[in-house]
Amino acid sequence: MSASDANIPRILVDGHGGDHAPDMVVDALASLLKKRRGQLHFGIVGISDVLLPALESRGIASQVELVPATEVVDMCEGPAMAVRRKKDSSMHVGARMVRDGHWDALVSAGNTGALMAISKLILKTLPGIDRPAIASMIPGVKGGSTLLLDCGANVDCTSNHLVQFAVMGSCYMKAAEGIESPRVGVLNIGHEDIKGTDVVKVAASELRESPLNFTGNAEGTDIFAGKFDVVVCDGFVGNVALKAMEGAAGFIRYHLKHELTRNPITRAGTLFVRSALQRFRSAIDPDEYNGAPLLGLNGIVVKSHGSAGSHAYANAIEVARREVESNLSSMIVDSMNALVTE
C-alpha cells in the first residue's frame, strides 16, 4: 500500500467462516469493490488453493490481498480445541495480522465461540476491560437503532462487567451512529429500581453515578421502542433475547407471505402495496443489521451471522469500516479512564 493510501481502512475477511463460504465472502468483496472503489483495502485469509480460484472467477484477484492459512476452524468445533490445535487457522492468522498492525480489522462468519476465544487470546482486552462483549444492533419502531450487549460472550456477569458493557456500547453508538450522549439502560423485568437481581440493581446504581447518560431500567419491549440507545445485560439473557427476536421476525415474514398469497384476490392486492411490503421486509430483515462487533478487544473484530449471504456479509464489513474510521478502541479507553477518575 502506498503512502497516499495510509488512511484507507484495511479490512481482512475470513475466507472460510460461515455456512456459504467462500462464495458469499468473495461475492461480498466483489460488491464492495464496485461500491467503494478506492475507499477500502481488502484482504482475505485462508487456504490459497480454495480462495484464489474464487477470486479469479469474479475478476478481483488483483484487487484483494490473499493472506495464506493452512487450517480451518469448523463451525461445531470447541473453542478450546480451536485455540490449542489450529494455530494456523484462518481465524488465528487473521487475529495475528490485526495484532501486528498489518490489518485494521478482521471480519468472520465462522464459529462464534472460537472467534471470541482466539481473538481474546491473541489481541487481549483493552485497559480497564475485563471481558469483551458481543453487541448487536436492533431496529427501532420509529427509525434508529438500539445496541444490545452482551449477546452471548459472557453467560455470568458481575455488576462491574455490565458497567463496562455500558461504556463500550455508549462509545460505539457515538462512533457508529453519531449520537452525542447515548441513552443507556440495563435490561430488567421492570422499570422500578427495586426489581431485578442483585447484579442488575448494583449495576444500575453504579451507572447512575457514572458520567454516562444512564436513563434507567429497560424492559424487553423497550429494546424496539426507541427509548434507549444502549441496553446492557449478561450474555445468557442477551442471546436468548436476540434469538427470540430473530425467530419472531421469521414468524412474521412467514405468516405475512402466507396470508398475502392465500388466493387470487390477496395476491392481486399485494401489487398495490408492494413498495410498502418491501420496506417492511427490509425493516425486520436481520441481514440489514448484520455485523456484531466484539467490543473491548485491543483490535477490531466483527462477527457476521453464520448463515449470512453476500449482502449481509457486506453489511458486516461496513460495521468494521465504521469502527476503524472512528478509532473506536481509543474512545473506549478514554471513556474507561474518565469513569475511573470520577
Please describe what this structure looks like:
By secondary structure, the protein is α/β, with parallel strands linked by helices. Helix content is 47%, strand content 16%. An eleven-stranded mixed sheet has the order 3-2-1-4-11-10-5-6-9-7-8, sandwiched between helices. It has two domains: 142 residues, 3-Layer(aba) Sandwich (Isopropylmalate Dehydrogenase), CATH 3.40.718; 164 residues, Isopropylmalate Dehydrogenase (3-Layer(aba) Sandwich). The chain is globular. The mean pLDDT is 88. A hairpin with a 5-residue loop joins strand 5 and strand 6. The longest helix has 26 residues. The termini are far apart.
Shape: globular
Instruction: Kindly provide the name of the CATH class of the largest domain.
Output: Alpha Beta
SSE string: EHEHEHHEHEEHEHEHEHHHEEHH
What is the number of E strands? Answer: 11
What is the makeup of the main sheet? 11 strands, mixed
Q: What is the H level of CATH, i.e. the homologous superfamily of the largest domain?
A: Isopropylmalate Dehydrogenase
Percentage of residues in strands: 15-25%
Counted up, domains total 2
